[in-house]
Amino acid sequence: GIVSLISLAVLSYERYCTMTGMTEADTRNYKKTWTGIVLSWLYSLAWTAPPLFGWSSYGPEGPGTTCSVNWHSKDINNASYILCLFIFCLVIPFVIIVYSYGKLLCAIRQVSGISKGTGRSQEQRVLIMVVVMVICFLLCWLPYATVALIATFGKPGLITPAASIIPSILAKSSTVYNPIIYIFLNKQV
């Protein structure tokens, strides 16, 4: 799940850099692509390994069919880890996504100001794509984050195993939606 979040943030930043001309798209050189993939996995590993070394722990999630961070433990060790996960693995990637797509929209708006004809429809299409991607990101990850925070900081037993199934499935399927949205809303693909 964390790899998918970080990958979406890296992808949004890379798309911003390529579209605004900060870096040039080169279909023969995969160094930048591999760097993004490796950094996504290393960052994710850095945030998923601490429970193996004593900062929080892993345990069954929901009805016990999957494994996740122990959301139900109320000690400071677990609460601090979950709070850090929330900040560094949800809030920061979301800020990067909003920043990257926002700057991309500003760049397209400047270009469409120069060329009035096709620029306006391209700007609207990219705006729709950005809004849909951000909404999908929030729809996939906010329920899961909310359930995790309520289970961690709320009253014991407030989140039942059945109530955590849908948010968990949504979060874990989030990487499927971004490419589909990009393909259907991008004329160049």
From TrEMBL:
<dbReference type="InterPro" id="IPR027430">
    <property type="entry name" value="Retinal_BS"/>
</dbReference>
<keyword id="KW-0807">Transducer</keyword>
<keyword id="KW-0716">Sensory transduction</keyword>
<dbReference type="InterPro" id="IPR017452">
    <property type="entry name" value="GPCR_Rhodpsn_7TM"/>
</dbReference>
<feature type="transmembrane region" description="Helical">
    <location>
        <begin position="38"/>
        <end position="58"/>
    </location>
</feature>
<dbReference type="GO" id="GO:0007602">
    <property type="term" value="P:phototransduction"/>
</dbReference>
<dbReference type="GO" id="GO:0009881">
    <property type="term" value="F:photoreceptor activity"/>
</dbReference>
<dbReference type="InterPro" id="IPR000276">
    <property type="entry name" value="GPCR_Rhodpsn"/>
</dbReference>
<feature type="transmembrane region" description="Helical">
    <location>
        <begin position="126"/>
        <end position="153"/>
    </location>
</feature>
<keyword id="KW-0681">Retinal protein</keyword>
<keyword id="KW-0600">Photoreceptor protein</keyword>
<keyword id="KW-0472">Membrane</keyword>
<keyword id="KW-0297">G-protein coupled receptor</keyword>
<comment type="similarity">
    <text>Belongs to the G-protein coupled receptor 1 family.</text>
</comment>
<keyword id="KW-0157">Chromophore</keyword>
<dbReference type="Pfam" id="PF00001">
    <property type="entry name" value="7tm_1"/>
</dbReference>
<dbReference type="InterPro" id="IPR050125">
    <property type="entry name" value="GPCR_opsins"/>
</dbReference>
<protein>
    <submittedName>
        <fullName>OPSP protein</fullName>
    </submittedName>
</protein>
<feature type="transmembrane region" description="Helical">
    <location>
        <begin position="165"/>
        <end position="185"/>
    </location>
</feature>
<keyword id="KW-0675">Receptor</keyword>
<keyword id="KW-1133">Transmembrane helix</keyword>
<dbReference type="GO" id="GO:0016020">
    <property type="term" value="C:membrane"/>
</dbReference>
<feature type="domain" description="G-protein coupled receptors family 1 profile">
    <location>
        <begin position="1"/>
        <end position="182"/>
    </location>
</feature>
<feature type="transmembrane region" description="Helical">
    <location>
        <begin position="78"/>
        <end position="101"/>
    </location>
</feature>
<keyword id="KW-0812">Transmembrane</keyword>
<dbReference type="GO" id="GO:0004930">
    <property type="term" value="F:G protein-coupled receptor activity"/>
</dbReference>
